[in-house]
Amino acid sequence: MNTLPSSIHSCGIGLRRQHFSTIAETKPNIPWFEILSDNYLIEGTVQREFVQQIRPDYPITFHGVGLSIGSVDPLNKEYLKRLLTLKKELEPAWISDHLCWTSAYGYSTHDLIPLPYTQNVVDHIVDRIIQVQDFLGESIVIENVSSYLQFKSTEMTEWEFINQVIEKSGCSLLLDVNNIYVSAQNHGFDAEDYLLAMPKDRVKEIHLAGYEDKTTHLLDTHSRPVTEPVWALFAKAVEHVGDVPVLIEWDNDIPELSRLREEANIAKNIQQKILGSRQ
Known about the structure:
The chain is α/β, with parallel strands linked by helices. It has helices at 20-26, 46-54, 77-90, 119-136, 158-169, 177-187, 191-196, 228-241, 257-276, and strands at 11-14, 33-36, 60-63, 95-98, 101-104, 107-113, 141-143, 172-176, 203-208, 212-213, 218-219, 246-248. The model has no long low-confidence stretch (mean pLDDT 95).
């Protein structure tokens, strides 16, 4: 029987080691935390011990980068075993990863590499997602990534690709609004067209983060506040998908926890303004 808190709602924050002491000392009123599951797979680490300590007080979700769901390498069974053990121990509300590949020939790139949007790739990824879901015993959540190149072999739009993967695999979607905006600016398509094409009944979570403007392109660094264009796109996302949990990601140049909570409050206020108007 599940005895740990599991209700995921409103706007949570990504759990980062820089904030461990503040969280332990103050027990802030944060609705939920998302952990980078790859950092918690080894027993006996500071990260694992800390999340065990706070888990009775906070709901959590898992967010990983190690599935490499788009790779042609065999699925990493040792990774999946460790992930399953962590799942049983911490009882997350759900497990998410990225719609990309991160490894080739047994080597990790430590980057989220985009895919060619073809029917063959759809079928390949669907098969791998189903294998992962069968192993973990639950439906997983897949996130759209930002991109900086496009493949000549692509046969469909990214949003058509995502819709097919979700429909055929039975997984859910982690809708990263910042990634949509970054890719739209980099490739010259309409971010709202992409957003409105997402299957709203399959969106499990929304991510918000900040990018860097490199003049020639936008770079998804998770090192800045959410920008005004992304806030505007987020408002349209809330109108489209309704009351879906939101998360603030900040992975580089990480500020004090209070600064992340400010971002979370902006997201919460936007949600309440839009959703409240529907009642």
